[in-house]
Specification:
Chain B: One of its GO terms (molecular function) is tryptophan synthase activity. The complex is a heterodimer of chains A (417) and B (271). Chain A is of the alpha/beta class and 417 residues long. Helix content of chain A is 41%, strand content 19%. Chain A has a domain at 75-101 and 214-409: Rossmann fold. In chain A, the strands form 5 sheets. Chain A has a 6-stranded mixed sheet, with helices on both faces. Chain B has a single domain (8-154, 215-266), classed as Aldolase class I (TIM Barrel, Alpha-Beta Barrel), CATH 3.20.20. Helix content of chain B is 49%, strand content 14%. Classes of the chains: A alpha/beta (417), B alpha/beta (271). Chain A binds chain B through residues 30-40, 178-179, 184, 188, 191-192, 195-199, 294, 296-300, 305, 307, 310-313, and chain B through 58-63, 65, 69, 73, 76, 81-82, 105-111, 131-134, 136-137, 154-161, 164, 168, 179, 182-184.
Chain lengths: 417, 271
């Protein structure tokens, strides 16, 4: 593992940093899976490490990003929105403009390439909001891989448009009806499929959680967000931002933009979780704020986890399907406990207000997930005041959330959707 | 330690001395009710199970198939707690069989590894089977199981490399759980041919007993596996029988019948 240090002038010096154990972020991470999957994880770890130093792989990925994803994504300054952020200057990193509409494509193109390098012909994935599912189905179509997407039944209903997109792209979509029928149950089902078909199948986990090497690998495939953003902010403003803000479900977009700033000690890293109907209501996904959330193991990794007095997983809730997950990526748990990053939450009410505000002031409709980050930007901007500079990762576009938003704002009559 | 622990290794050694494989039956605590599950475990022992695998219901059982997952959901909805597992372990021990708990790791972690080990030993449990804990992550459990004299059963799979077989079996005590096939729990019409090959590979690296699980549901399958393995583990077929229609007493009788059939099967497969 390497990380970097940066002097005040913002020069790039990559410095190798020793880690205590591979796959661990402090006390978090690890590999808590059935033995049957260990050989596959070792194969994946070897493949991704070889790919990381293989110019052919890097060239192919760079070509895809330039000609297919649409990278580099642009930086947009939003002064009319910033007027609601204490006067601080606010810049959006526009991952919503990527092909398929979110940051997710960065990761799946790379994982699909690795799938082919491992000689596997089938790719499976879980999805909550559908963004990762659509991105995976897209990569599979592009590279001729068989594709199956697991999605909670509840999420297939609130994200029906994305289900249709996945099917059009040639993927099979399996609606999971077990448990809470949301993202965590889709992951359970994908893991079962993987155990059964691991010789031909790669499980493209969509966020920075799961057993090692997934948290590290997915972060590395998304770190391009922070690398681009950091250079763009420096070029535009001549300095680093005071704060980098991103929403945190599993935490992939946040790790993607945070990673390049971790060594910049003066830059606050702010993750925004889903506060749902309020932490005190119990209906939320604020893993770092809720009283039921303590370190535990879910889906192969040790991290903060919403659990009851016996260690059974507590169901999470968010208006945004992509944040509706009871655990969080282990590197976030480490960043939080080490004090390097700070985490707060936004309630559904606050999120919808920010969603509407960005649309009306800047003509940009964000994903509900990304609207959580906007709430964080409004709060941090007010703390920083007029001299502040806030960088926000706008991780996805809001097309998929029109059904939810229209219902929330009373723009459609019941039964017309 | 207040209870007399029956070690699963001792039971398997006794069966081996009789020239036969052991029958190991799995049921989750709390299905259909806590009392019903304890009664069912007693039936397993009375009808010929040498070891009872006492399952703790879990909200996210990723290596279990639909039958076991549904049973766990029913158990949790009915209020089953980790505490109830200790009650079931005592009942199995009192009925005269070894009790080994099968659990997903977070439940042990959350209770506290040391506390869980102490309570399990005190209730007369033999040890733990941990489907989502590999030895590489298990140092706390290795230490606690040593302190409390508990068995620790890790899984090997057809995909396990020779190096992994050494790593896993070196950490095992009691027996080695060999997954017969790549996949989740659930009765199958035929047990994968990988099972025999896996047992042979395990025997090359350890003298520990090797028990086969995942997919066994019939007397004939039990006999087939008993010819080359030290133990035959049956789960979903028993759970499904217990979960049938009708009065609990009738279902317990059906469970008794199936268990007796399987017990006959392991004897037919004598080596």
């Amino acid at each position: 593992m390497t990380t970097h240090t940066t002097d005040s002038a913002g020069t790039d010096d990559l410095v190798p940093v020793e880690v205590e154990r591979p796959g661990r972020f402090g006390a978090f991470g690890g590999r808590y899976v059935p033995e049957a999957l260990i050989p596959a994880l070792e194969q994946l770890d070897e493949a991704r490490q070889k790919a990381a130093v293989d110019p052919e792989f890097q060239d192919e990925l760079a070509r895809l990003h330039a000609t297919y994803t649409g990278r580099p994504s642009i930086l947009t300054e939003v002064p009319r929105f910033a007027a609601h952020c204490g006067g601080a200057r606010v810049l959006l990193k526009r991952e919503d403009l990527n092909h398929t509409g979110s940051h997710k494509i960065n990761n799946v193109l790379a994982q699909a390439l690795i799938t082919k390098r491992m000689g596997k012909t089938r790719i499976i994935a879980e999805t909550g909001a559908g963004q990762h599912g659509v991105a995976t189905a897209t990569a599979a179509a592009l590279m001729g891989l068989e594709c199956r997407i697991y999605m909670g039944k509840v999420d297939t209903e609130r994200q029906a448009l994305n289900v249709a997109r996945m099917k059009i792209l040639g993927a099979e979509v399996v609606a999971v009806e077990h448990g809470s029928a949301t993202l965590k149950d889709a992951i359970n089902e994908a893991l079962r499929d993987w155990v059964t078909n691991v010789s031909t199948t790669h499980y493209a986990i969509g966020t920075v959680t799961g057993p090692h090497p997934f948290p590290e690998m997915v972060r590395d495939f998304h770190k391009i967000i922070g690398e681009e953003a950091r250079a763009q902010v420096l070029e535009l403003t001549g300095r680093l931002p005071d704060a980098v803000v991103a929403c945190v479900g599993g935490g992939s977009n946040a790790m993607g933009i945070f990673h390049r700033f971790v060594g910049d000690e003066g830059v606050r890293l702010v993750g925004v979780e889903a506060g749902g109907e309020g932490v005190e209501s119990g209906r939320h996904a604020a893993r770092f704020a809720g009283s039921s959330s303590t370190p535990g193991v879910l889906h192969g990794a040790m991290s903060y986890l919403m659990q009851d007095r016996d260690g059974q997983t507590v169901e999470s809730h968010s208006i945004s399907a992509g944040l509706d997950y009871p655990s969080v990526g282990p590197e976030h748990a480490h960043l939080r406990d080490s004090g390097r990053a700070e985490y707060r939450y936004a309630t559904d009410d606050q999120v919808m207000e920010a969603f509407s505000l960005l649309a009306r002031t800047e003509g940009i409709i964000p994903a509900l997930e990304s609207a959580h980050a906007l709430v964080g930007a409004m709060q941090v901007g007010r703390e920083l005041g007029p001299d502040g500079l806030v960088l926000v990762n706008l991780s996805g576009r809001g097309d998929k959330d029109m059904h939810t938003a229209a219902a929330w704002f009373g723009l459609v009559e019941e039964g017309t959707q | 330690m207040t209870a007399t622990t029956t070690g699963v290794g001792e039971v398997l050694a006794r069966c081996r001395a009789e020239g036969r494989a052991a029958l190991i039956g799995y049921l989750p605590v709390g299905y259909p009710t806590v009392e019903g599950s304890v009664a069912a475990m007693r039936v397993l022992v009375e009808a010929g199970c040498d070891v009872v695998e006492v399952g703790i219901p879990y909200s996210d059982p990723v290596i279990d198939g639909p039958v076991n997952q549904e049973a766990m959901s029913v158990a949790l909805a009915g209020g089953a707690r980790v505490d109830d597992v200790l009650t079931a372990v005592e009942a199995v021990r009192d009925a005269g069989a070894a009790a080994v708990v099968m659990t997903y790791w977070n439940l042990v972690l959350h209770r506290g590894v040391e506390r869980f080990a102490a309570e399990l030993a005190a209730s007369g449990g033999s040890g733990l089977i941990t489907p989502d804990l590999v030895p590489d992550e298990a140092q706390d459990w290795l230490d606690a199981s040593d302190r409390h004299g508990l068995d620790r059963v890790f899984l090997v799979a057809p995909s396990s490399t020779p190096e992994r077989l050494v790593t896993v079996t070196t950490a095992c005590r009691g027996f080695v759980y060999a997954a017969s096939t790549m996949g989740v729990t659930g009765a199958r019409t035929s047990v994968d041919s990988d099972a025999r090959g896996l047992v042979e590979r395990v025997r090359q690296v350890t003298d520990l007993p090797v028990c086969i699980g995942l997919g066994v549901s019939t007397r004939a399958q039990a006999a087939e596996i008993a010819a080359y393995a030290d133990g035959v583990i049956v789960g979903s077929a028993l759970v499904r029988t217990l979960g049938g229609e009708g009065e609990l007493a009738d279902r317990l009788e059906a469970l008794r019948t199936l268990t007796a059939e399987l017990a006959a099967g392991v004897r037919e497969g004598q080596r």
